[in-house]
Design a protein that fits this description.
The protein is α/β, with parallel strands linked by helices and 148 residues long. The chain has a single domain (15-146), classed as 3-Layer(aba) Sandwich (Rossmann fold). Helix content is 49%, strand content 16%. Strands 2-1-3-4-5 form a 5-stranded parallel beta sheet, with helices on both faces.
Length: 148
């Protein structure tokens, strides 16, 4: 059975991954998330994040859309194809409607423009964590029912 976010104690702070190729953005977002009561873990690339997700999946990810090695959209697609449900908030310096619609169609919970508004980001992350934990609780109930 693969690990799912939220598998730990329900009282533990949600773990939020911050994936951005800019160190200053990772640091600032990590501080903001910790100040709001979340745990955060920073990753400099999509591939680093994907490898870590196999070991310890977060409850949510805040993901830069434009990174050199792998775009945020590509990370989102790979997560979807892996079967691991993980709500993602994508951030970008661009606000073109085409990419925005593609990431939302792929299941991102939000698309925010840099510089990110702190309260708006926290609200999106809170919503994403609530969604994730609801899905995992429902899956646990279905699994328990099927085991009867």
């Amino acid at each position: 059975m693969s690990a799912q976010p939220g598998d730990g104690e329900s009282m533990s702070p949600p773990l939020i991954a911050v994936v951005d190729d800019e160190a200053s953005v990772r640091k600032a977002l990590g501080r903001l998330l910790r100040a709001a009561g979340f745990d955060s873990r920073a990753f400099a690339s999509g591939s680093e994040f994907l490898a870590a997700c196999r070991r310890e999946p977060p409850d949510c990810a805040v993901l830069d859309m434009h990174m050199p090695e792998m775009s945020g959209l590509e990370v989102l697609k790979r997560m979807n194809s892996s079967g691991l449900f993980l709500p993602m908030v994508l951030i970008t310096a661009d606000d073109e409607s085409g990419p925005r619609q593609r990431v939302l169609d792929e299941g991102a919970v939000a698309w925010l423009r840099k510089p990110v508004d702190g309260p708006q980001l926290i609200q999106c992350v809170e919503h994403a964590v609530m969604l994730a934990r609801s899905v995992y609780a429902m899956n646990a109930r279905v699994t328990a029912f099927a085991a009867r």
